[in-house]
Amino acid sequence: MMFESSQFDSTPSFVSSQTADPSPSAAKIRDAQPMHPVTVKQIVGASSSDDDKSNFLIDGISVYNVKLVGMVFDKTTRVTDVSFVIDDGTGRIGCTRWVNDAQDTQELEELTDGIYVRVHGYLKSFKGKRQIVVYAIRPVKDYNEIANHFIECAHAHSSNTRLQKNGSATLASSAATTPSNGQQAVSSSQVSQEYNLDGMGIIDKMVLDYLHLPTSIKQEQGISQNEIAQKLKISQEKIAEAMRSLEAQGEVYSTIDEFHYKSVKA
């Protein structure tokens, strides 16, 4: 499978203006930097760039702009900004989206706890804690986009680490463009070894995250497979397979019948 940038970078359904960040200088720096697909685990493990304190090193590459896919938690709305946490299965990171006008406010109303989103933003460290200042965000409509993002991350990781081993400082394409040597991209099975949570499959993690939502926990009778399939836009067959896997791992249990489940930890 070859990578094309259009596979991953469709136009966001709501994107901030050029003034999304209060600092004009930050916007100029942002626009001059390439975009990197990353996971939270990579951000947490990144080291500071020696030549630029605003950048971080991931796989030996200086990173400023990042794109991330994950589930929203702990949304907090204030007058000037909205903060929330993104959980992508490898960890959690805080995010901030500045609000400049009524359109921004309306767009961010779509942002609710428990939905999957794609965010574009830049990395920032404040009081020793890393976060993402978001300037573009949109809901994920197709769960395949989540798997694609992890494949893209693995491809970039493989390309960049290979370049470092070869002693090259050339930046691997962060937009997941086709490698010039025609090499095939990393397979989804390879992705699961590094980027899945404790060996848990992507769909399993999505289902478990949904069962951990406050609204799901309140349902004493459990959540039906049909509801989860509709909310996550995944086939009932795949949801049933995920439930069997989670039940075998001791993560969930059935309640009123074999089609309703609750998380063991909820």
Low-confidence stretches: 1-20, 168-198
CATH architecture label name of the largest domain: Beta Barrel
Q: How many helices does DSSP assign?
A: 9
Task: Report mean pLDDT, rounded to a whole number.
Answer: 76
Q: Tell me what portion of residues adopts beta-strand conformation.
A: 25-35%
Count of DSSP strands: 12
* Spatial separation of the terminal alpha carbons: 39 Å
| Oligomeric state of the chains present here | single chain
Q: CATH superfamily assignment of the largest domain? A: Nucleic acid-binding proteins
Please describe the biggest sheet, giving its number of strands, its sense, and whether it closes into a barrel: 5 strands, mixed, barrel
CATH class of the largest domain: Mainly Beta
CATH-derived topology of the largest domain:
OB fold (Dihydrolipoamide Acetyltransferase, E2P)
What structural class results from the helix and strand content? alpha+beta
Biggest sheet strand order reads 5-6-7-9-8
Share of helical residues = 25-40%
In total, how many domains does the architecture comprise? Answer: 2
